[in-house]
Design goal:
Blueprint (H helix, E strand, L loop, with lengths): L1 E8 L9 E8 L15 H8 L7 E6 L2 E2 L4 H7 L7 H4 L8
Antiparallel strand pairs: 1-2, 1-3, 3-4
Length: 96
Amino acid sequence: MIKAQNLFYSYSKTNQYQVNDVSFEVKDGEIFGFLGPNGAGKSTIVKMLTGQLKPKQGSASVLGLDVARKPKQVQAQVGIALRSPTCTRTSARPPT
């Protein structure tokens, strides 16, 4: 189970948030994905859920573990695959 409650995050010291009051719950057995344009905060939310970033406000738990308090335990239990430009390019050439 994943729970996110009122997550906020900003990369700057201004009040302009990349993640602004995001809340959701994913129950056991559900398949869930983030869709949105570049810069919408999808990767930032995933980084908060995996303990790589600490939310400025709000809370999150994964598998019943508080992400802010036990990031190492969360990271030991989950795996993520973020899209990377290197994943979509190939240097292989067809045989001549």
